[in-house]
Fold this protein.
Amino acid sequence: MLWRCIKLLENFFFSKRRVVGVDGAQMELAGGNRLLRLCGVLTAQVLAFVVYYEIYTMFTSTHTVHHVDRLHSSSDIKYQRNLEPVAFQLTLSTLLDQSNYADDPATQMWFYDHVFDHPQAELRVLQTLELDGAAPLLSRMRPRDRDITLVTQTSADRLMAVERTARTWTGEMVVAVHVMARNETEYVYKKLSVLHWSIEALGRCRLNIYFAMEDGFASPEEAAKALYPVNAMRNIALRMVTTKLVFLLDADFVPNPGLHESLTEDEQTYQEILNRTIEERQLLITPAFEADVSSSSNSRSPSLEIPTTKSDLLRGWRNASIDCFHCARAPNCHMSTNFERYFDPSTISPYAVKYREFFEPYFIAAREFIPRFDGRFRGYGKNKQSHAYHCAAMGFRWMVLPEAFVYAVPHPHSTAWKAYTGTETRQKMQIQGLYNRFKREVEQNSYTSPSILRKN
């Protein structure tokens, strides 16, 4: 639309045309004199700016337009804006229909990349039982002198994975739990209180649990339809860490038993980890694996048997019952780990790997230097990839720990995963548009880490 307006103005002011003079003779004008040309250029620029501004203000605001069901269904937004009635009013849906927007993937991608408002998710950490229905569950165990905090986040439907990890990890662990309504909050709090007490009784994992809620929804039903604010939840958990080292992991992964002890019990080893992460700015990768459900040795449901040693892992790797995580479906996510070298018996020291775009490993890093996650990413898709891209742009080095690994605990796919990988392209394009914008911001040094915690 904007380009057509400009071309029409150019043709009007600059194309050759014949006019009749006062004496009746025909004269040919080639775009007029310099003054006419200048007026034409200024008029075209002003009108182009007005048209663009009108479209831009219709497309964007801090409150996303609610009326376009095809573009912004209630499954992923909570904002709405009432359009004031005017003499000449085009709703956004009408504008898109008239321009064949919905049928043009390139235009869709441009819209999500350059125009669509991707707001930061704003979360509130619940502080008191009386007012919020939940409060932080903090460990009473003494902090260790040498420690690494495992940092994770989860929704209320994956608490089993948190328990499995807490029973395996012997260091500090921070979990941010997302809740949506008061009745759910009270139920989840009671359930996690029992879990926290049982983990404390073991005296191994120093577990700290925080509850976070996103306000502003009109009803619990509306809150339930919003996409999970995954990166904002990761930032909440990172905000609560006090140790020098953090281990960034998703809740549905379990680290190999003994990993924490192998990195912290010996003073020399621990100091080497500190030197690598702080002085040399290295990110220490823990390779990720999962059950290979495509193998004939496995049923359609992944096995719940989790390897506990690298020998178990190697055995499963050789008989094709275990595969690197997502390597069959999305090889760019973890193939950069170089699994051939990882399983090579001669590999006894951390080895360097090259970052390739879409790499999204789990790793140990220095809390002081690691960037925060972009809280605009919600649901499934590119939330960790954007963080790894930022780390690579900051010059971090990628090293693989040869005796470490994490293993995916099977769980049902989320609604966001089904929407992202299904035939409907809207969510995928929205995430891709945000990812494109994020990359530009990083490359232009205009990206700033989001605010991690909204003050109460």
Q: What stands out?
A: Residues 276 and 436 are 31 Å apart (CA to CA). Residues 124-443 form a domain with the Spore Coat Polysaccharide Biosynthesis Protein SpsA; Chain A fold (CATH 3.90.550.10). The two ends are 45 Å apart (CA to CA).
